[in-house]
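[stage:ingest] chain + small molecule (zinc ion)
[stage:ingest] validated
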Amino acid sequence: MYEKVSNILKMAKESNTAVIGFVCMDYVMARTVVYAAEATNTPALIMLYPEHVTVQHTTGFAKYAAMVKELANEVKVPIGLHCDHDFSYNAVLNTVQNGFESVMMDGSMHDLDTNIAMTKEVVDKLHEMGVCVEGEIGHVGAASNVDNDKEDLYTKPDAAAKFCKETGVDSLAVSIGNAHGEYKDTPHLDMERLDQIHAAVPDVPLVLHGGSGIPDDQLLIAFSKGINKFNLGTDYLRRYFNAISEFVAENAENPDPVKIINMPAYVQEKLQPYVEERLRTLCHF
Ligand SMILES: [Zn+2]
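[stage:predict] done
[stage:export] tokens:
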């Protein structure tokens, strides 16, 4: 059942757990998440990474939103739709006008005052439209970038308090040792800092980006300390690639190329156990 992200975040906060936002580039990935969520009776979010539309042309914003809502309404469990990293007022507004009711305004590469001003402008406009907004403070960089270890990019608790108070964001992405993409070494989340951020903004659901590769024991601790949304992209995309590769390998000698029509079901069968396992292990609604 299609459900607003704000309601799912509220459920996660009440249960002291996190909802997983799966980055899905297409119908097969989205359908797999929806059916895994139903099989485990666990709410989940389908997330669009906007570059997949604007750069890779995988789909359009409106078609993506309509696809997720239709899929969500095939099942009973709550399924939310969220758009990840937009970087400007115009980009966010375009996303919303195409059917998204939950977006991220990422101004984290700017200084604090600029980030606050940009995010507040978005929140003021979108709250009038009933849309919920995730902001980011501190900067979650790329795991491939050595700069990401630098603690000066980590979220500062007092800055988080100021940011939330002045912008009115509905959720807040934090930088506590997490990073996007493939980690070179096992990451170690700064739990003490997370405690301090959670104490500074106890009512705001916190979001952990760069979820692929963080050990489960660290994730579960983080979820007990205010992380209520967890983004999973790299690992899911890699498994999608592997499943397609297996299909291609198994059908390399196939004399009938039209058998490609069997690929979506094959891939879903390969991926769904992984998504179900993630939901069962990490989410406790
Ligand atoms: Zn991110």
